[in-house]
Design goal:
The protein has about 200 residues and is an alpha+beta fold. It is about 50% helix and about 15% strand. It folds into two domains: about 110 residues; about 55 residues. The radius of gyration is 22 Å and the shape is elongated.
Length: about 200
């Protein structure tokens, strides 16, 4: 198994970790991009690449197992939490209740059994920015022609959600997100300190 190359000077440590400092906010930004169904795939792919790149920079600057494990945990949280949190915050504080009609139900095989996707339209005939309900909102009992009350994003960024969706705990998550971001940046700073000690003896 090939070894990851390490740096040979303190100057390179500073250069690599300076680039790595941009990683956490970029990862959070791409997760927010993924909250839009039109960009979810691209946001998650680019966010994953940004996470891998940030971890590689940290490993190269300071090959330290504990720092990398912490970076993986915090990086996954930074990539997976912001998008759903944005959607929940929008629905709780700005979501508009509308009635929609199911126009089609698609069934496909998931890892843990059958999953469903529903296409919907507004009963009042107005356009709907995102007309798809995912598996969490579209379950097996839904049928074509059935009507449901959903919350929609007035800005058209996030997908609609059923009105009975449980948003408890989002205030805690909203406070936790900046903590995760701050801890991730702290790990990058620690990787700089660990890397510099190898050359400066401090």
């Amino acid at each position: 198994m090939p070894r990851i190359a390490t740096v040979t000077s303190s100057r390179k440590v500073r250069r690599l970790t300076t680039i790595a400092f941009f990683g956490p906010p970029v990862i959070v930004g791409l997760s927010l991009l993924a909250a839009n169904p039109d960009w979810s795939g691209l946001g998650l792919v680019l966010g994953t690449f940004a996470l891998i790149a940030t971890l590689l920079l940290m490993i190269t600057a300071a090959p330290n197992g504990w720092l990398i494990v912490g970076g993986v945990i915090l990086g996954i949280a930074a990539l997976s939490v912001p998008g759903p949190l944005l959607q929940a915050e929008v629905m709780v504080h700005q979501g508009q209740r509308v009635e929609v009609r199911v126009t089609s139900v698609k069934r496909y095989q998931g890892k843990h059994g059958p999953e469903y996707t529903c296409l919907v339209e507004r009963v009042d005939g107005k356009p709907l920015e995102h007309a798809e309900l995912g598996n969490d909102s579209c379950d097996a009992p839904m049928e074509v022609g059935q009507t449901e009350d959903v919350l929609i994003d007035p800005h058209g960024w996030t997908a609609p959600e059923l009105t009975e969706t449980d948003y408890s705990g989002i205030d805690i998550a909203a406070w936790a997100l900046p903590v995760v971001l701050g801890l991730f940046e702290l790990l990058v700073w620690l990787s700089r300190r660990v890397g510099l000690r190898r050359f400066e003896g401090r």
